[in-house]
Design brief:
It contains 9 helices and 16 strands. With 401 residues, the chain is of the alpha/beta class.
Length: 401
Amino acid sequence: MTEHRLIHKIKKAAEQHLESVIKDRRYLHMHPELSFQEAATGQYIQDRLRDLGIAFTAGWAEHGVVAEIKGAKPGKGFMALRADIDALPILEENDVPYRSQNPGVMHACGHDVHTSSLLGVAAILQDIREHFSGTVRLIFQPAEEKLPGGASLLIQEGVLTNPVPRGILGQHVHPPLEAGMVGFREGMYMASCDEIYLTLKGKGGHGAVPQDCIDPVLMAAHVLVGLQQVVARKSDPLVPSVLSFGKIQSAGGANNIIPNSVRLEGTFRTMDEAWRREAHEWIRTTVNHICASMGGSCEIDLQIGYPYLINDEQLTASSVEFAGEFLGKEKVVRLEPRMSAEDFSYYSQVIPACFYRLGTGNKARNITSPVHSTTFDVDEKAFEVSSGLMAFLALRHLGND
C-alpha cells in the first residue's frame, strides 16, 4: 500500500475513534492513581483492549499491560510503542467536568493523554490490520514518576524481548507547543536524574546562646552555597548539569530554638555519565567537609535515578520525515535538549528509541500551564494528531518486511 493510501486509511480511522479517545482521556483524568498503585487504571486498559478484540498480557510490574497487534500480511517487522499510566501527588485546581475525583492525585504530566492516545493507536491498527505486515507491541507502563521507574522493571521482565523490537517510540505532552504540532530532537535529549537526601546533624539549643550549639541551619546554608561550586567550578562548562534543592526542613526549631538537625532534598542532573559519577563523589566530599568544619556531621543518601535519554539518530531522522508526510513539514519542529528526566531513557539504553513531543497548548484559549502544575490541561485538538501519527510512525518503521 502506498504511503498516501496508508495516511488516508489511518486518518479516517483516527477520526472515527477520536470521540472514544477523548472519552478515555477524560475518564482516566478523573480517576488518577499514583505510581505502583495503578490497579484500576490497568483494569480499565484491559477492558478497553477486550472491547477492541486485542490480545494482551497483564501484571507487568504489577499493573502494566502489554498488547500486540499483528498485521494480516506476512512480515517479520517488529516495533514497540509506549505510554505511561501513573499520576502525580498534586491537588488539581482546574474547574472542568473531568476534574480529578481523587483529591490530592492528578494527571498533571499528561499520562492520561499518553494512555488514551495509545488506546487510540490500538483501535486504529486493529481496524486496518489487513493492510500492513509485521507486529506492533503496545506497552502501557506503570510508575514512570517514581524510582526505580517502571521502564526498568518491564525491561527486567522481558518487555523488549521475544523478539527484540527494531525500535521503540514514545510521545509526551508539551504545553509550549500548540496543539496540532509535534517536536523531535535527535541524539542526547534528556538528562539523567539522581535524588539527593541530606540530614545535617548538629546540637540544638537556645537561639540566644549559639556558642553552646552546633547550628545545622547555618550548616545547611553553607552546604547549599558550597554545593553550587560542584557545578560552577568542577564540571566542564560544555557539559549540561543542574544541581537544585527544593526542600529544607528542620527537626523542630523556632525563632529562638536551634534544632538538632536539618534535612535537605535535591536533584542532580547531567548528560555525561562519567561526570555524573564524579559529581556524586564531589557532592559527598563537599558536604562532609563543610559539616565537619562546623563541628557537625551529615547522613548522605544519594539515590541513583534514571539515565540520560538518547534518541537514536536514524530512527529519529526517519520519524521526522514520516511525521512531515503525515502532518505536513510545517507542523514538525526541532526541539532543544532538556534537563528534565524520563524513565523512557531506560528503553533508549537498550534498543533504538525516539521520544518526541506532542503539542497540547493553545495560547488563545489560555491552555498554557506547564506539566506538574495544579492547572495543567491540554487542548483536546491534540488528539486529532496523537493516535494517528503514532500509528503511522509505527507502520512506516515496520516497512514492508
